[in-house]
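Forum > Structural Biology > Help requests

Title: Can anyone predict the 3D structure of Lipoprotein?

Hi all, first post here. I have the sequence for Lipoprotein but no way to get a structure on my laptop. I'd be grateful if someone could post the structure tokens.
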Amino acid sequence: MTSGKGLFLLGFLAAGALAGCAGGKSAERGAQAAEGSKPQGEAIQPERSGGEKVTEQDVNGDGKPDVWTYTVTEKDAEGADQERRVRQELDLNWDGRVDLTRYFDANGDPARETLDLDYDGKVDASYFFEKGVNTRRERDVNGDGRMDSFIFYERGTLARKERDTNADGKVDYWEYWENGQVDRIGEDLDGDGTVDKWTRNPNNAASE
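Reply #1:
Sure, ran it for you. Structure tokens for Lipoprotein below:
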């Protein structure tokens, strides 16, 4: 990858990393989020559904498309036809394959972004949005095709981190954040989906 391409990719990822907002709070809800994640091996480029039209763009001028925008035709309030953007696929490193897919809601705002970070055609990370604001991030850290790291935001602030540390498909580690630092950590030691051990004020405990 050339330096220009690398900067383009890193710039995009950095911009995504700065977004944030709301999420739920309980460990139980976190476990449900893990169980509700997308199936293993989700393709970064979904199958094209009926009625979708695609527009191609060549961003870097090499004669090959780098951006694919999918739209559908719908009726507006007055019954007239209008085009609505539903998805956009991007080739960030210009190798001819999709690396990032953006999904849009009925209002045209971002609803979800999926990224293929290792260029194998599968989703490695997902960002979720509400009213255009990033509310949750999920990541397949160990590469088994299943999300095992989750980050939640509330009002633009980091609120909670969750992890599946033993790759069994269930969250067993929770970090709750307050005022920019970890307030407490919960751990599920027996795999039943509930917290067995709490560590309060871990930053203070570490300094004692």
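Confidence is low (pLDDT under 50) at residues 1-39. The chain is about 15% helix and 40% strand.
Shout if anything looks off.
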